């Protein structure tokens, strides 16, 4: 089948998509966007978290066809060109990245959290990120990164990214 | 560039030191790529005309293969190759220590998940479906599933022709028959843990025109992979070129081969690039796990609390192939009494073949299992003596100058007692305010709303451990570094090239820091890891900062020596009077002579050095050795847990650690290692176990194999001390493994304190608390 969708603000088309493919597979293998990760492919680890019409989802659990004519935002769309988003910058600064395989999904989940809850409590951060597994960090520096990102965003409108949104 | 021999006589500014050197915490150089989603992990790779590989695995833990029919699979549209054992070009065996594992099974399969056949197809689903068309006729056999039985019952089937024992090692010190005032004994078991790295096993093989193959992959050790792969492919190792791609975690699980030979075979057969990426279920079958263990312990002490003897029998289930089992037995037995000074020791360790999943390296290998047992024993002994468990540990703590059970004198700091005192002093969490309604998210069961505080009891427990660092028992342990210093656009640039795997731990940052400190240049690039430079050994045994750090230091110093010699000649000053500072060459007499870049001009200085640590020696038949291990590391944990004693649910409230790291090359990364290692120890304590029944893994998914989430991992106080090892570069001591080891017994001790239960198995589940 042919799949038309918008990814990070750009209209994209994938041809010869097999109906059983996931959105994750299409992003990674057909659209040249391997940033979203394939750690479990069963919706348990969150490493493939992307925005689908601004709602975070596990791309591995979305059938490719479900993304037809919809807006997808991936980790590749978080930065504004060369400029990293607040959440991205905070993950680097706080040492929240080790192997980095969980990072793309965590960034999208954290970006969404700060958008919805500009000043999250620790309990809210933990709840929001409970679906994202990390095996390297023990999460302490991820907590620090999200706190820092929220602080730097000044409790205003999210982390300054427009991933999956209305960027044209 | 100046060709004058006269000193430049610019003011010498010694404050102009280079930032980001050893002891600071510069940010990792790959961080930006990783947060942008642009860092190329091995599973992200793609090549024009690429095929997908898939692996057929045995459904039986023990069976004879009567026949394999690949015809229907081969005729399936989109399939380009189907390969079996007959197609392995070279040696159909590999292994890290014992070369005992077939690349593809020939006449027998020895575990459920063993690779039997391969497919290459134009779509991953086509490849998977073709696997179903391969017809294998198995004669199913009774599996050997009990390691302890396998050690003593000769009537069991032999998993390998040579018998079921991979390694037996006794350790005897003093009088093993001595008696004591107070004796406690116990039997402890540790479940099979999985590394659960997030990046799946994956590689992209591209056939080359010279008959060789280029493999881009995620691994812990490029050269050991290449050696085994070249033998299986029957190729000159020079024709098997391996390049490291992004590694999504390792933790020991990437020491053994997984897809390496398979993907190269498919690429060489089809003449096209082939990529293999395991999914999570296949990953559980496709790599080794932590050895499950059964351990019998007896501790004897005086009434005052001085340890008199430790006697133990340790059984490690190695599964179907040896992998790192010999090392696990070596570590388990030599470290089996823990970080304590014990005069009389008798430990026997068995590493066994069974038809269970193969077990090998995982963070803390061989030291994790006995630590749970000996620390449980120390708590039991404290109770029998009516002593404080921390005081009992401090009283018996090993220290510098003491002799280990193998007869090795610790000739470096061993601040075990200090770590215990320090971790005890770290702040405790505030007790919940009396009468206040607690936030259920902080309680066992969390948002499941299973308690509002009723039935919840708090407990505190301690654990301390010892781990050997680097390879041991006579292995020639070394790493290689090539350092090139050149002038790029008027600035000096150092390029560091090693084969040492960056698996997330931050080795790339550490290498940059060392080069900055040694060469006093700001810009340091890390060349991609590949096999065009000498071996680095594995990113395991907490060894890379030690050995690769040592190699980078040595190569930088060789470069510096040449640079100073050139400068000395040019400026007519003795080289011994020259030093580097802030990108400049400085004379003690005349001040700044020149910029490094200026002296380099268009010349590059390149030096390659190996670093070998002090020699180690094998154990004899009584487990004696002058130096079995080159270094030991220590950490102590304190855990605070809340237990819902009615439902058996556990919430770790706080987990604190004191650790000696010798020298913190990158203090923030050290803390990150301690936090991450502690989380894996927490996983083993309360949730992580591969369930194996009749040789089969029952929970090969993240739905059923649980690892800690951000809700499970509590806040930590981390206390790092630096008691340098005079034998190691910069005094470093391995960091990565100890926190994985001492966290588990501390958490279980805290659960015991809350519940009064014995708790002799990890992970602890509700059934152990309620049953």
TrEMBL record, chain A:
<dbReference type="InterPro" id="IPR051452">
    <property type="entry name" value="Diverse_Oxidoreductases"/>
</dbReference>
<keyword id="KW-0411">Iron-sulfur</keyword>
<dbReference type="InterPro" id="IPR036884">
    <property type="entry name" value="2Fe-2S-bd_dom_sf"/>
</dbReference>
<keyword id="KW-0001">2Fe-2S</keyword>
<dbReference type="InterPro" id="IPR036010">
    <property type="entry name" value="2Fe-2S_ferredoxin-like_sf"/>
</dbReference>
<dbReference type="GO" id="GO:0051537">
    <property type="term" value="F:2 iron, 2 sulfur cluster binding"/>
</dbReference>
<protein>
    <submittedName>
        <fullName>Carbon-monoxide dehydrogenase small subunit</fullName>
    </submittedName>
</protein>
<dbReference type="InterPro" id="IPR002888">
    <property type="entry name" value="2Fe-2S-bd"/>
</dbReference>
<dbReference type="GO" id="GO:0046872">
    <property type="term" value="F:metal ion binding"/>
</dbReference>
<dbReference type="InterPro" id="IPR006058">
    <property type="entry name" value="2Fe2S_fd_BS"/>
</dbReference>
<keyword id="KW-0479">Metal-binding</keyword>
<feature type="domain" description="2Fe-2S ferredoxin-type">
    <location>
        <begin position="1"/>
        <end position="78"/>
    </location>
</feature>
<dbReference type="Pfam" id="PF00111">
    <property type="entry name" value="Fer2"/>
</dbReference>
<dbReference type="GO" id="GO:0016491">
    <property type="term" value="F:oxidoreductase activity"/>
</dbReference>
<dbReference type="InterPro" id="IPR012675">
    <property type="entry name" value="Beta-grasp_dom_sf"/>
</dbReference>
<dbReference type="InterPro" id="IPR001041">
    <property type="entry name" value="2Fe-2S_ferredoxin-type"/>
</dbReference>
<keyword id="KW-0408">Iron</keyword>
<dbReference type="Pfam" id="PF01799">
    <property type="entry name" value="Fer2_2"/>
</dbReference>
<keyword id="KW-0560">Oxidoreductase</keyword>
From TrEMBL, chain B:
<feature type="domain" description="Aldehyde oxidase/xanthine dehydrogenase a/b hammerhead">
    <location>
        <begin position="36"/>
        <end position="142"/>
    </location>
</feature>
<dbReference type="InterPro" id="IPR036856">
    <property type="entry name" value="Ald_Oxase/Xan_DH_a/b_sf"/>
</dbReference>
<dbReference type="InterPro" id="IPR046867">
    <property type="entry name" value="AldOxase/xan_DH_MoCoBD2"/>
</dbReference>
<dbReference type="GO" id="GO:0005506">
    <property type="term" value="F:iron ion binding"/>
</dbReference>
<dbReference type="InterPro" id="IPR008274">
    <property type="entry name" value="AldOxase/xan_DH_MoCoBD1"/>
</dbReference>
<dbReference type="InterPro" id="IPR017609">
    <property type="entry name" value="Xanthine_dehydrogenase_dsu"/>
</dbReference>
<dbReference type="InterPro" id="IPR016208">
    <property type="entry name" value="Ald_Oxase/xanthine_DH-like"/>
</dbReference>
<dbReference type="Pfam" id="PF01315">
    <property type="entry name" value="Ald_Xan_dh_C"/>
</dbReference>
<dbReference type="InterPro" id="IPR000674">
    <property type="entry name" value="Ald_Oxase/Xan_DH_a/b"/>
</dbReference>
<dbReference type="GO" id="GO:0016491">
    <property type="term" value="F:oxidoreductase activity"/>
</dbReference>
<dbReference type="Pfam" id="PF20256">
    <property type="entry name" value="MoCoBD_2"/>
</dbReference>
<feature type="region of interest" description="Disordered">
    <location>
        <begin position="1"/>
        <end position="29"/>
    </location>
</feature>
<dbReference type="Pfam" id="PF02738">
    <property type="entry name" value="MoCoBD_1"/>
</dbReference>
<protein>
    <submittedName>
        <fullName>Xanthine dehydrogenase, molybdenum binding subunit apoprotein</fullName>
    </submittedName>
</protein>
<dbReference type="InterPro" id="IPR037165">
    <property type="entry name" value="AldOxase/xan_DH_Mopterin-bd_sf"/>
</dbReference>
């Amino acid at each position: 089948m042919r799949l038309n969708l918008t990814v990070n603000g750009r209209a994209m088309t994938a041809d010869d998509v097999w109906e059983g493919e996931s959105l994750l597979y299409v992003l990674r293998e057909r659209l040249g966007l391997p940033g979203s990760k394939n750690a479990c492919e069963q919706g348990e680890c969150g490493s493939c978290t992307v925005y689908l019409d601004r709602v975070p989802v596990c791309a591995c659990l979305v059938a490719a066809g479900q993304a037809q004519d919809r807006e997808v935002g991936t980790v590749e769309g978080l930065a504004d060109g060369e400029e990293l988003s607040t959440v991205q910058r905070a993950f680097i600064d706080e040492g929240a990245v080790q192997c980095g395989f969980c990072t793309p999904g965590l960034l999208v989940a954290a970006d969404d959290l700060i958008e919805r809850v500009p000043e999250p409590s620790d309990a809210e951060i933990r709840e929001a990120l409970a679906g994202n597994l990390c095996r390297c960090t023990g999460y302490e520096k991820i907590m620090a990164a999200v706190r820092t990102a929220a602080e730097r965003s000044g409790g205003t409108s999210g982390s300054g990214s427009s991933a999956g949104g209305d960027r044209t | 560039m100046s060709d004058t021999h006269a000193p430049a006589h610019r003011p010498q500014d010694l404050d102009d030191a280079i930032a980001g050197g050893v002891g600071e915490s510069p940010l990792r150089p790959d961080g930006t790529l990783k947060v942008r989603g642009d860092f190329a992990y091995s599973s992200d790779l793609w090549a024009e005309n690429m095929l997908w590989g898939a692996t057929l695995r045995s459904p039986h833990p023990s069976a004879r293969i009567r026949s394999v029919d690949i015809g229907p699979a081969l005729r399936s549209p989109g399939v380009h190759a189907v390969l079996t054992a007959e197609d392995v070009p070279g040696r159909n065996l590999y292994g890290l220590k014992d070369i005992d594992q077939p690349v593809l099974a020939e006449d027998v399969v020895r575990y459920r998940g063993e690779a039997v056949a391969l497919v290459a197809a134009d779509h991953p689903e086509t490849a998977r479906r073709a696997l179903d068309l391969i017809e294998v006729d198995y004669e199913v056999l009774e599996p050997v599933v009990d390691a302890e039985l396998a050690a003593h019952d000769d009537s069991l089937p032999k998993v390998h022709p040579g018998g079921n024992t991979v390694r037996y090692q006794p350790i005897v010190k003093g009088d093993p028959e001595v008696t004591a005032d107070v004796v406690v004994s116990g039997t402890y078991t540790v479940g099979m843990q999985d590394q659960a790295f997030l990046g799946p096993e994956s590689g992209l093989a591209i056939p080359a025109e010279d008959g060789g193959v280029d493999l881009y992959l995620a691994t812990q050790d490029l050269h050991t992979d290449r050696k085994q792969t070249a033998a299986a492919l029957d190729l000159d190792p020079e024709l098997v070129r391996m390049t490291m791609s992004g590694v999504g975690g390792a933790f020991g699980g990437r020491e053994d081969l997984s897809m390496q030979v398979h993907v190269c075979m498919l690429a060489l057969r089809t003449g096209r690039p082939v990529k293999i990426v395991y999914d999570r279920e296949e990953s559980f079958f496709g790599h080794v796990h932590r050895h499950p263990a059964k351990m019998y312990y007896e501790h004897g002490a005086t009434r005052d609390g001085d340890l008199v003897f430790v006697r133990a029998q340790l059984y490690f289930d190695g599964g179907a192939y040896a992998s790192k089992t010999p090392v696990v037995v070596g570590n388990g037995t030599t470290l089996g009494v823990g970080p304590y000074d014990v005069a009389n020791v008798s430990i026997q360790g068995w590493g066994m073949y069974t038809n269970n999943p193969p077990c090998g390296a995982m963070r803390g290998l061989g030291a994790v299992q006995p630590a749970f047992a000996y620390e449980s024993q120390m708590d039991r002994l404290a109770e029998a003596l009516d002593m404080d468990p921390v005081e009992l540990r401090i009283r018996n703590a090993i220290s510098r100058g003491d002799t280990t059970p193998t007869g090795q004198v610790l000739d470096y700091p061993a601040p075990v007692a200090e770590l215990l005192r320090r971790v005890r002093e770290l702040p405790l969490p505030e007790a919940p305010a009396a009468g206040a309604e607690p936030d259920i998210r902080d309680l066992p069961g969390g948002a499941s709303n299973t308690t509002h505080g009723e039935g919840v009891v708090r407990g505190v427990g301690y654990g301390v451990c010892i781990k050997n660092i680097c390879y041991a028992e006579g292995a020639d342990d070394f790493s290689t570094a090539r350092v090139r210093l050149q002038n790029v656009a008027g600035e000096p640039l150092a390029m560091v090239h090693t084969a040492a795997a960056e698996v997330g731990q931050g080795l790339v940052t550490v290498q940059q820091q060392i080069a900055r400190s040694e060469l006093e240049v700001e810009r340091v690039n890390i060349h991609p890891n590949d096999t065009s430079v000498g071996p680095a050994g594995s990113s395991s045994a907490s060894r890379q900062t030690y050995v690769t750090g040592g190699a980078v230091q040595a190569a930088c110093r060789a470069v510096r020596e040449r640079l100073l010699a050139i400068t000395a000649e040019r400026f007519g000053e003795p080289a011994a009077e020259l030093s580097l500072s802030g990108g400049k060459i400085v004379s003690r007499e005349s001040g700044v002579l020149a910029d490094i870049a200026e002296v380099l001009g268009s010349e590059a200085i390149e030096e390659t050095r190996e670093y070998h640590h002090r020699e180690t020696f094998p154990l004899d038949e009584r487990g004696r050795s002058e130096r079995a291990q080159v270094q030991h590391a220590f950490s102590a944990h304190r855990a605070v847990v809340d237990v819902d004693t009615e439902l058996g649910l556990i919430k770790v409230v706080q987990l604190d650690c004191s650790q000696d790291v010798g020298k913190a090359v990158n203090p923030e990364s050290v803390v990150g290692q301690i936090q991450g290692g502690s989380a894996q120890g927490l996983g083993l304590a309360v949730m992580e176990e591969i369930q194996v029944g009749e040789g089969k893994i029952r929970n090969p998914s993240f739905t059923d194999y649980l690892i800690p989430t951000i809700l499970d991992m509590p806040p930590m106080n981390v206390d790092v001390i630096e008691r340098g090892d005079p034998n190691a570069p910069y005094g470093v001591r391995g960091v990565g493994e100890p926190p994985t080891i001492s966290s588990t017994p501390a958490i279980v001790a805290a659960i015991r304190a809350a519940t009064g239960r014995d708790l002799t198995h990890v992970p602890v589940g509700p059934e152990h608390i309620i049953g």
